[in-house]
Structures
1.
Amino acid sequence: MPDLGHAEALMLALLNTAPVIDGVRRDELADTEGAQAWLAAQGWPASGNPARALREARDALKSVIVGTAGPASLAPFLTDVRATPVITDDGLKWTLDAASDNSVAVHAILAWDKLNTTNPGRLRPCSNPDCELFLIDRSKANNARWCSMAVCGNRMKARRHYQRSRQA
Ligand SMILES: [Zn+2]
């Protein structure tokens, strides 16, 4: 099981599994093959058919982040989860036991909650209205707007420049 830093990366990766590319929404978790490949890329054990559980967790978390659903809607992913304390030379570590279908969801929700507590408002959707990706703002000024400066940042700048030059 990953530590929370890794869980944060996992959460962001999960949120960003349905990018819009050239106006077409592509869902990496659309089928079993895609979902298993995605899990493998995250270094997560893949078995059975995780696609549906992953999609449900992703969509529920997205709705909570953008405010169209309350946090209580995440409750179904958190049933039958147990944390076991293990004492080591480095201190206390918690091991999570969750039904394997929900283990990614549980870690993603924990990471989301931790981020809300330690860095509230830092997880947000990309400001490009045509983009469906999320970002975690790590800038000092807390003013990052794009999932990627290289993609959405430049695209939106170019669009504003085009609009300005048309108006001029
Ligand atoms: Zn974007």
2.
Amino acid sequence: MATPLTGVAWRVAAALSLLGAACGPGGGRPDTSDGDGRPSASTTTTTAAPATGTRGTSGPSAPGTTGKRAQAPTTARGSDATSAPNPTIRRTAVRAPGQFAGVLLAPGAAHTLVLDVRVQPGASADGDTIGRTAELMRAQSGKPVAIHGPTSLSDSAQTHDADAIRRLADTQGEADGADVAVLHLFYLSGRFADDGVLGVAVRADTLAVFPDEIASATSPFVSAARIERAVVTHELGHVLGLVDLYLETNRDDAEHPGHSTNRGSVMYYAVESDLVAQLFGGPPPVDFDSSDLADLRAIRAGAAPQG
Ligand SMILES: [Zn+2]
């Protein structure tokens, strides 16, 4: 229900960060706003200053193509998205992960972006990560980005598959507007249907992270906050077309399509895996590498997707 996010415990990053080292160079710390989930025009924070440049998103999951969202039973939508959805935005938003990259990054249909954050009871979201994610969107697109939420999600499931997550976007997510493209970021309790998944991109406009799984993937050297930042950025990267989900640069990992071969990139496949701490032996990367950034610039400049 639309329970205000009273309970959305902003995860105190301090919790596991006995070793402050965990927080790498990764991005700045944008303003975050925790909105209480309220109807419409919920918490809206617009990021302004241009800043860091990186973001990431996650795995190329099953493209779900289905209807668009319906009004949320409890939580209403944001104000920006009040007008009738732009057909191009609407059509593209429900395609496979990565296909929304042109709408999000290049000038055109979407003049404003919304990061619609929904948190299932029992899950928690890190405010710094949300703020940083919005800032990355803003920096890479040059468009204003508003954070709506976090708003409470009405869902009691403890195992989520891609279809169910897409359904949440359709039924409880905020709708796109005439020139507003909405990106849904869900914090879900429990786990994904497949084992070992810390985060997923299930549709061009929808990503989800699993804080319980992230908590299980920590180590004495890697905090949950650090992993969350890496995973959300990784999933965002997928939504923004990385790697080779929008353009065809032939640089993605043959064994892990949609991912970078560079262990130093947040788009490396292991970032969204529960083995992240072991595979990196320390904090995972939280930034895009120069090749990732070049792709994002190309998309923003209007590079067209491959046939
Ligand atoms: Zn991935």
